[in-house]
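Fold sample X.
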Amino acid sequence: MRTIIKNLFIGLILIALGFAFYWFKLRKPSIDEEFKIYGNVEVREAEAAFRQSGRINEILVDEGSIVKKGDLLATLETDTFSQALSNLDAEIAVANAELTKLNSGTRAEEIALAQANVRQTEAIYRNAEEDYRRQASLLSSGSVSEKLVHGARTTRDVAKANFDAASSTLTLKRNGARREDIAVGQRRVQAVQATRSRLETALEDTRLFAPIDGVISSRNKEIGALVTPANTIFSISIRSSIYVRAYVSEPMLGRAAVGTLVQLKTDSRDKIYQGRVAFVSPRAEFTPKTVETEDLRSDQVYRIRIIVTDADSALLQGMPVTVSIAPTTATVR
C-alpha cells in the first residue's frame, strides 16, 4: 500500500513539473498576458574626420564633451595653404594685368613708332628699286655685269620684304589684340581664380566641425598627429535617437507590430522607460547567442527596433533591456 501511495505521489510530482515546464517554457503568452522580450540598447554614432590631409594643430574637445552641430572640434596646421594662397594672389594680379593690356589695345606711342618704321623701310625699298632699274637698263649695253644687276635685285627684294613686314606690324598695332587673344587672357584669369577658390575650400577644410548634435564617445588622434581623410578623429554618439534592438518569435510577432507601445527597464535602474516599435525586419534569423537561452537558440526570430521616447543619458551602448508589452497593447501610427 505504501509503495502504491509513494508511486502515486512521485507521479503527481512529475505531472506538476511537466505542467510547470509547459507553462513557463513552451506555452506562448496569450493576448491577455504581459509579454516580455529582451534586447540591447543601440546608440548610433557619427564619425568626424578632416577632408584634408595634414598635421593636427589643435583639439578643442575630449571624450564626454557635449557638442552641437557646427561646433569647432579640431584644426590642422595652415602654413602650406596660406603660402599657396599668397602665390595664387600674385598669379591673379599678373593675369589681370595682361588681360587689361590686351583690352586696352596698342598705345599711341607704339603706333607712331611703327609708322616711322614703315616710312623708313619704304624709303629704303624705293631707293633699292630705282638702283635695280638703273642697273638693269645698263646690262644690255654691257656697261655693268650681270652679277652686279643680280646683287641690286636681291637688295631690292630684301628692302621690299622689310617694308611689307613694317606695314603688317603697323596694321596689327592699329587693330589691337585679336578677340581670340583676349578670350585666352580671360580664361587664364578664370583658371587661376578657380584654383584659388579650391584652395580656399581646402583651407576651410583644415577646420573640423561637429556634423551632428551628440556626445564625443571616442577621441582617436592627438595634437601633432599626421592624418588623412580616411582617419576618424572623433566618434560622436547621437543622443537624440536611442534605440533598443530585440527579437520576437514568429508566433508572438503580432504582439510587436510597428507602432506598438512598450515599456523598457534596465538592470541598473528602477526607471521604466517608454518606447514604440518602429521597425520589424521582414527576414527571419536564428536567435542571437547573447539574447536567448540555450534551448531556444535554434529558433528563428524577427529583429525589431524600438525607439525609446523618453531616453536619457543613463542608457548606454549595449546595455541589456527588458521589454514589456502590456496585455492590451496600444499602437501609434
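Fold sample Y, listed below.
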Amino acid sequence: MTAGSDPVFSSKSRAEFGASPPPRDHRRLEWDEALERVVAGLVPTWLGEDLGYECDWTSISLVAAEARAELDVVARAGGVVAGLAAAGIVAAGVDPRLEWSRAAKDGDVVSRGAIVARLAGPTRSILTAERTVLNVLGRMSGVATATRRLVDAVAGTHCRIYDTRKTVPGWRLLDKYAARAGGGWTHRIGLYDAILIKDNHLAAMAAAGSDPAAAVRRARDFVARTFPAERAAATVVEIELDSLDQLPAVLEAGPDIVLLDNMPAERLAAGIAIRNRLRPEVILEASGGVSPDTVGAIAATGIDRVSSGWPTHASPWLDVALDWGTATRSA
C-alpha cells in the first residue's frame, strides 16, 4: 500500500467467510430485533452526553425551525462499513421526522468518498444527531475494517478469526456485531453463555490441588448436572493453556476447544501434532500477540481459529462525515 492510498480489502460478503460452525460452537451474532432493542435502550444515554437535560442551543440559535436539509454520510477513508442500522436508530431517537436511508449495507467494502447513507429532515435535528450518528458509524466501521484485515491475512487457510470480550463497556454486542460485519466469528458473548477456563481459574483450582484436566472434567460434569439437556449439549467447554505439557491430559478430558495462549508458531505446530494424534475432534485456538502482521504466520501453523481483541480495543475508527457540500437544503 502506497502512502496516502486506501487499504485493499477482500470484497467477499460475510456469508462467504467460512462454512457453518461445528455443532458445539459459540452463537453467531447477527443484526436482529433483540439487537435493535439494545441499541434503542442505549440511545438516550448517548444523546444525553450531548444534550444533558437541555438541547442543542447552537442549532436553535442559528437555524430556522422550518429549515429542512438532506445530507450525505460519506466515508473519508476506505474500509468496511458497519453500524448503519444502529445509526438509523440514533437518528430516529433524535427526531422521528428524520429520514435515514442506507446507500450501503453492513459488511460492504467502501472506498474513500463513497456515500454510505443519507439523512434528511429538519435541519436542526440533523445537526443535533450528527456527532452521535457519526460516532456509532465510525466506531463500528473501524472494528469491522480491522477485523477484515485479520480475515484477509489468513485467506487461503482454514483458520477463522474470532472476537473477544475486550469491548467497550456497554458496547459488547455492538462491538461483536461489528466484528461479524468484518467477516469475523463470534466468541462467547459473556460469562453466561459458555465455559472458558482461564489462567486464574486454573490457579484457583491448583490451590485446591486440582490440575487442568480435572478442571475440564469438573466443568463437564457441572454442565451435565445443572443445565437442561438441550442447553448442556450446546454449551461450549473451553480451556486456556500456556504450556503444551498440560495438553495431552487435557485432551483426554474432552474439552470442545483448547486455547493455546501466547505460544510461538513452532509451539502451536507442536500442539496441533499432539491434538491430531490424540483427539483430532478437539478445536485448537490461538490467542495472544495477534495483529495483522502476525496472524498470517499463526494461521499457517494449521491452527483452527484465532481469537483477537485487537479490532475492538486498538483499531482506529473509520473516518466518516456528514457532508453538507453535496446536500440539498430548503427553508
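Sample Y note: The chain has two domains: 23-145+316-330, 151-313.
Also: Confidence is low (pLDDT under 50) at residues 13-21.
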